Amino acid sequence: VEVKIEVVIPEKERSKEEMSPNGKASPLIYKVNGTARHYHLEEHPVASNPYHNPKDMVEASVCHVKDLENGQMREVDLGCGKALLIKESGEFHAVGHKCPHYGAPLVKGVLSKGRVRCPWHGACFNIGTGDIEDFPGLDSLPRFQVKIEKEKVYIRASKQALQTQRRTKMMAKCISLSNYNLSSTNVLIIGAGAAGLVCAETLRQEGFSDRIVMCTMDRHLPYDRPKLKKWLFLQSMDSHPEQIALRPKEFFCTYDIEVLTEMQVAAVDVKSKIAVFKDGFKMEYNKLLIATGNMPKTLSCKGREIENVFNIRTPEDANRVVKLATSKNVVIVGASFLGMEVAAYLAERAHSVSLVELEHVPFKKFFGERVGRAVMKMFENNRVKFYMQTEVSELREQEGKLKEVVLKSGKVLRADVCVVGVGAVPATGFLKQSGINIDSKGFIMVNKMMQTNIPGVFAAGDAVTFPLALRNNKKVNVPHWQMAHMHGRIAALNMLAHGTEISTVPYLWTAMFGKSIRYAGHGEGFDDVVIQGDLDELKFVAFYTKSDEVVAVASINCDPIVSKVAEVLAAGRTIRKRDVDTVIFLSFRTGDMSWLTGKGS
Questions:
Q1: Domain range holding 576?
Q2: What is the pLDDT of residues 57-74, one digit of tens each?
Q3: Which of 321, 408, 438, 506 is the most exposed, fewest CB within 10 Å of its CB?
Q4: Is the previous residue joined to 241 through a cis bond, with omega within 30 degrees of 0?
Q5: Number of neighbours of residue 524 by Cβ within 10 angstroms
Q6: Direct distance between the N- and C-terminal alpha carbons of the chain, in angstroms, rounded to an integer
Q7: Global pTM?
Q8: Are residues 402 and 446 in the same domain?
Q9: Which stretches make up the Rieske domain (predicted)?
């Protein structure tokens, strides 16, 4: 028996026109430094499909048909690239072998019930279609058709697909590029982060062919904020925002997604369906998505306006901090994810790094005291000095620039640069008089379909609270990059009246001093932490429990256990505290995933 794999071109997505009353669209508007520039689709023609070129195809023998058992995956080399061969329920499937997000090897991920989950950041892909089903990331996997003939396995694939290891799902475009009323749109998206972009892309993927406008206070097109926070792109002093863009400018032009940069919405009139911008411009909408994210908190002490005190929010902020901090004294206020990531990055570049925190252990509320102390020790071993259980009382300057940070404990720290990472608040102040329900902390309240209390108005991302199925539909705020993606997709589907409810498992990650911490679930209010492994060696798994139930898991150097647990939770199964020492960790050791297919606890 032979197994042959050849590229299958995805069929064109069905077209939907329920939200296209006038059939008109506008040229794209891309505003930089206050100047509007117009792009027409014909300036950026869509490239021809590379899979149609027979000279681009390659075929190779990769293995015997009996080499794979059910539930197994294997990377196979075709000479000019690799594919992931999968056998599940007696059937073979083949897709790209790398996660399109950051390139993780999917063969080290988790295979369960028709999908493979990335071992690094939890993105999920359908093994039959290659489509992305959970995030982060925007692209799907290339899919290859499998044929069985004789006893050898052959793969026939596109060279380009093997090299790129990604596939952008087919999208609709506006059905007309005739003149459009620039002061009205069918869908208005306030915010151009992950939630806003995924919403726009999902609408196009589902065949929506009317006008979509995104607006943002940023001067840049949507970019990868985790890369900004985690400093992955700062390999030189000449780094540019384009290096971390989620999509190139041509993408927005091709698919008629308009982006208005440096445009701030000042108010929303939900009765008239009008958004009012800060400069007085007004735009009518039919459907509205609010995905404004959050704004960093600032210090309230004397001297907070001194030069060289930063809240890192933009690529320009990040580059300036790196430039100013090199070989200088840096004080970081707040042991948040941002504060700790900045400290880890600057430890080898700055003369000194001091971190000021009100709690006595970093990450205590999120990871627990034991894990927090282990992380703190890693930082101390890398020359980061902690000043805990104190706050900043004053920032002192010399000739207009920062010189010293004075703590309430009386300690005075030398400082050339200060980075503030003391948390954030939802950017929803402009909605106070709108009639949209907002809780006491400023978060927009939505249901499982990301709908607000106002018909046609949706909200997504860091600025919302929503019912989390994992925690019995408790209303929670989950400011994770992965969750923002899913919010945007759910909002788009329900703008199209699909009736889709959110059910994803939260998943986050961070990297410090070459150690990656992965986390899945929602551990808010946990009452115990069960540790498997060695905290001192930074090789462990931490299970967070509330009463007798595991509600979250974190790990360092134990991939892919977090993705495995995420898959269990996504299946609706309950993990009890008593299971941790046996079923969970044994499956990690042996790789046996058969218990995933069970029911109940």
A1: 514-597
A2: 888 888 888 999 999 999
A3: 408
A4: no
A5: 17
A6: 40
A7: 0.88
A8: no
A9: 60-155
